[in-house]
Write a structure and sequence with these properties.
Layout (H helix, E strand, L loop, with lengths): L7 E3 H8 L3 H9 L5 E4 L4 E5 H11 L5
Antiparallel strand pairs: 1-3, 2-3
Helix pairs in contact: 1-2
Length: 64
């Protein structure tokens, strides 16, 4: 599945793309290592496709 830079992905989806745990994605967002935002009444984390692609490039991972 291709990553759309304009779409928001849940922390779980971002974790799948980045091959890390969902909690790791949340921690990266909290520490500003990954740009994300909390949305909705339950404050779930979402990450933009552009941020996922940038992180993949920095880590040297191939685009999915």
């Amino acid at each position: 599945m291709k990553i759309d830079p304009k779409k928001l992905y849940s922390a779980r989806e971002a974790a799948d793309f980045l091959k890390v745990n969902e909690e790791t994605v949340k921690n990266y967002c909290r520490s500003k290592q990954l740009i994300g935002k909390q949305i909705g009444p339950k404050k779930k984390w979402y990450v933009s496709g552009a941020a996922i692609l940038k992180r993949e490039k920095e880590w040297g991972q191939d685009e999915i």
